[in-house]
Amino acid sequence: MIKGLWTRETVALFLLLALLPLAVTWITAERWDGIVRLLVTLVIVYAWQLAFMLLRAQPPSLAGVITALAIAMLAPAAPGPFAYVLGVSFGVVIGELVFGGWGRNILHPATVAIAFLGFGYPAAPWPELPITATWGALAALGIGVAFGLVSIRLMAGAAIALGLAALAGLPVADPFIAPAILVTFTLLTCDPVTSAATQLGRWAQGLLYGGLIALFLSLWTGAATVQLALSAALIANLTAPLLDELALLAWHARRRRRLG
Amino acid sequence: MASRSAIGLTVPTGAPARAPADSATRITSEASISSPFRGDFRVELLVEPGDRVAQGQPVLRAIKARDFAITAPMPARVARIDMDPGKRLNSVLFYHDGEGGRHRFDIPKATDGAAIWTLLANAGLWRAFRQRPGMVAAFGAARPAAIFVMAHDTRPGAGRPLDWVHDRGAELAAGLKAIGALTEGPVFLVTPRGAEVDIRDASDRVTRIEAPAPHPWGLAGPHILSRAPASFERPVWDIHVEAVADIGALLRSGYVPETKHVAITGPGMRAPLLRRVQHGADIRELMLGKVVPGRHIVLAGSAIDGTRARWVGHGVHQVTALMDAGPEKPPHWLRAALGRSARPLPLVPTAGLDQALCGAVPVMPLIRAISAGDTESARALGAFSLVEEDLALIDYLTQAAPKVADMLRTLIDRAEAEEVAP
Question: Where, by residue number, does the polypeptide cross the bilayer (chain A) (predicted)?
Fold first, then answer.
């Protein structure tokens, strides 16, 4: 008869609050450029949310702000406004809204949008993230864990993989590489809806993200750091259901062994 | 195990958390016994309205299995018997009448499971066992694959069941021994961690589980799910520890104990109470003069898993009074329409959800299987070991609509209709 707190919209609200330090560090570095990009992206995202509300009766979500922030921060500079609108629309509509809105989607809409822009316009330059964004991302992760929105297992898995990569001599902690890795992880991989939903799956997804970063850093020459990180986030995102399924298989096997 | 043990949740209810330790006996002047089943329960009457009955005297019995009786909760006059056509029982109302006395049952010489079960059936104590899948009363010739005795309750505001039986050691031991004869499988006793309980007499049959304090470790569901999952072929029973002591008392003296403990809590109470009442006691009379002025919602159960009730039914050891804020202002029509447009509402995984079943099962895959109506996946994840009260915490946390607990009920009912063909 009494009601708890964690509906879809409260999760979105607290997630947005958690991401504020990251947004602030980024906006202080980018100034008006960043603000304009963010506002334009917000308008596109919410135009589609409005359209789906009117046509499909899908309630709009505060999570659209998070999507817009991620796209504004990480998307490559598209050749012209039409390409940008197309890319963002593709991500928001195909990545999220056709599945029924935030909470039912399988991929992060921002990941889809950025991948579309990045691989659709290969000549477009990828953004450079400010070094301060590293600290913003760490603060965001801390707040997310405190609210119970970011899985500590996902973080630990990524930290282990990246730590091993650093020990192997890869430039993971380089001040021009670390921001891209961390910001992409925070904004895209840690999304509670589309990341793995089982405890073992989260460990695996964190390890996979870190492992892919290490692989790309050592083998993929000539790629921008955000491009590397985005590719890792996209693959980690795509494999989340598979990792969950494997985690369930492991759970069933353990249970069969214990209960006979 | 150690890393899992701290998992659980504390639910804020806006009321003093625990009922006091001391209790007063209170026999209300009216009591009502209702059908132990949600569906058909065809009965044969043994008394007529107006008859005087002794406490513990059988007043009606099941037509399907005539050993199974329902007994009078107190010395009383039968006031009204509410039946649907076809002799289907709804409820029986009693008025207290001190002249009635107590009914004594003959204690069988044999101590095998069949003899004990027949005695419990005659004495009405069969209703204390709750059978999973589906939480129906244990009925007929079915035998469980395991029995869980719950001496731990972590629902917000719940009392401490172990305190209620601490001076009934001999009866509890006799009861544990008796229910050990009802099953070939294990008997588990779930107690709070570190609590003192003497089970030496029954130690060869009873395995003790020490569970931590956060909710939902005091519910039977997560324990059953991780230790002896229930299925239609292998049902599992759970029973409250006080009812086990009652069984012991019946076997030692021939009398069914008159009272049970009920914790009366919630923000609607001026102070939480602990009362010893008869089965089917009148909640309004128990609360008279003890509530905060205003309109109330009275629930049997806790604030998160309770259902509106007027009488203290079987298996109910907690009553919650909430303040009724009155009818809510209807939301804006567009908001209301959008909220109804696509059900079930999406649930987003949070740390709270991960802990909502003690880590006994991956929660999100279970919720997805239940809300998709995927019986096979839900069964593999142990959904048949769970009942509404186990998922109430998830519904509380996420304001799920429709409730996951209701969707589980639909799933189990459908599976039962498909698998347990009559």
Answer: 35-55, 62-86, 106-126, 138-170, 206-223
Nearest-angstrom CA–CA distance, B358 and A145? 19
Strand order in the sheet with B206-211: B136-137, B130-132, B236-240, B146-150, B187-192, B206-211
Q: Which pLDDT value is given to residue B421?
A: 64
Q: Tell me the β-bridge partners of B130.
A: B137, B238
- Taking contacts as CB-CB distances below 8 angstroms, the residues of chain A near B351 are 148-149, 151
Question: For residue B1, what pLDDT band results from cuts at 50, 70 and 90?
Answer: very low
- Domains, chain B, in order of start with CATH, read 1-23+260-326 (3.10.20), 28-100 (2.40.50.100), 107-253 (3.40.50), 339-419 (no CATH)
Tell whether omega for the bond before A21 is within 30 degrees of 0, i.e. cis: no
Position B18 scores a pLDDT of 58
Cα(B403)–Cα(B422) distance, rounded to whole angstroms? 29
Q: Distance between CA atoms of A190 and B238, rounded to whole angstroms? A: 40
**Distances in whole angstroms, Cα of residue A54 to Cα of each of A38, A42, A58, A98, B398:** 24, 18, 8, 14, 26
Task: Report the candidate in A69, A48, A72 with the shortest Cα–Cα distance to residue A60.
Answer: A48
Q: What is residue B318's three-state secondary structure?
A: strand
Chain A environment of B4 (Cβ under 8 Å): none
Interchain CB contact of B391 with A (< 8 Å) = no
Neighbours of B116 (CB within 10 A): 21
Strands B307-308 and B296-300: antiparallel
Q: Which residues of B touch A197 (CB under 8 A)?
A: 349, 362, 364-365
Mean pLDDT by 10 residues, chain A (260 residues): 88 96 95 94 97 93 96 92 95 95 94 95 92 95 95 96 94 91 96 94 97 94 92 96 96 91
Distance in Å, alpha carbon of B252 to nearest chain A alpha carbon: 36
Spatial CB neighbours of B140, under 8 Å, sequence gap ≥ 6: B64, B65, B68
What pLDDT is recorded for position A217? 94
Residue A192 touches chain B, beta carbons under 8 Å: yes
Query: Which secondary-structure segment (H or E) carries B371?
Result: helix B363-371
B296-300 sheet: strands from edge to edge = B24-25, B273-277, B260-265, B318-323, B296-300, B307-308
* CA-based nearest distance B347→chain A, Å: 6
Put simply, the answer to whether A148 touches B350 (Cβ < 8 Å) is yes
Give the strand pairing for B206-211 and B260-265. unpaired
pLDDT in tens, B346-384: 999 999 999 999 888 999 999 999 999 999 999 999 999
Could you report the per-residue pLDDT of B3-57, keeping only the tens digit for each? Answer: 344 466 777 665 555 556 667 899 999 999 999 888 788 999 999 999 999 999 9
What's CA A210's distance to the chain center, in Å?
14
- Provide the pairing of β-strand B88-96 with B76-84: antiparallel
Residue B273 has pLDDT above 60, yes or no: yes
